[in-house]
Amino acid sequence: MSVFISATGTDVGKTLLSSLILAKYGESLGLKYFKPIQTGDDSDRSSAMELSGLEGSRFLKNYYSFRFAGSPHYAAELEGTEIDADELARHLFSIREENIVVEGAGGLMVPLTRKTLTIDLIRQSEIPLILTAPVSLGAINQTLLSLEAIQSRKIDLKGVYFIGIPDKTTEDNMRTIIEWSGVPSLGFFFLNSKERMSREQFQEECSRKFDPDFTLRDAIQ
Fold it and tell me: Is 12 annotated as a binding residue?
């Protein structure tokens, strides 16, 4: 079964979560990685490949790549083109039974075109969703709003995974989000800083801290 990794916003931790899943379960579950839309020079596909340590054949080519680091609809317009959201939705629907970690671009409400949002693509693809959420001050509002949007569209949500640098609000943030939304928590991964980890650091942190009770693994099988 494929799983769609989205988030409450940009730079919340979608690529990190995707890489953690691939590093820990890529071999045992036969997982592949697919980022349909990449904007900007930094390649999340390359980052996930580097961090996870899996062979390159497991990382599928982006469906669309744009030079400008911005919302996909605008990045496409700057290059004089438009994303075919219907075609992309059909493609994702066709691979939903495969073992693929699909990483979205930005947050749920990011436009792919002037008429289609990322959350619409998720709904049309019928791929189960994991929402990546932050843990620090402000997490409650943006996460509950995202969950309300998901629930109103009746998307198959596996749960919320929390990622970020903890602060004094973190413990209550996570508790409050789960209590108000009623959705499962799939776990958390706390960071010490925003600095990028080396592959060695990442692999050590993954084996030591990520999904110790296999809650997330069980959700995506």
Answer: yes
Domains of the chain with CATH codes = 2-219 (3.40.50.300)
Q: Find out whether 156 is annotated in a ligand binding site.
A: no
* Annotation marks residue 32 as catalytic: no
In this structure, the chain runs to a length of 221
* Cβ atoms of 63 and 37 closer than 8 Å: yes
Comparing CA positions, the residue from 197, 152, 209, 150 lying closest to residue 6 is: 150
Distance, CA of 69 to CA of 61 (rounded, Å):
18
- Residue 39 among known ligand-binding residues: yes
**Where does the chain show beta strands of DSSP type E?**
3-7, 32-34, 37-39, 64-66, 100-103, 129-133, 157-164, 185-190
User: Which among 24, 32, 35, 158 is annotated as catalytic?
Assistant: 35
15 carries a ligand binding annotation: yes
> Residue 34 — φ and ψ, nearest 5°?
-145, 120
HSE value, Cβ hemisphere, 13 Å, CA-based, for 110: 24
Rounded CA separation 30/54 (Å): 11
Provide the CB-side half-sphere exposure for 179 (13 A, CA). 7
Check: CB of residue 107 under 8 Å from CB of residue 146: yes
Backbone torsion region of residue 119, taken as left when φ is above 0, otherwise alpha when ψ lies between -120 and 50, otherwise beta: alpha
The pLDDT tens digits of the residues spanning 127-170 come to 999 999 999 999 999 999 999 999 999 999 999 999 999 999 99
pTM of the full structure:
0.96
Q: Is 3 annotated as a binding residue?
A: no
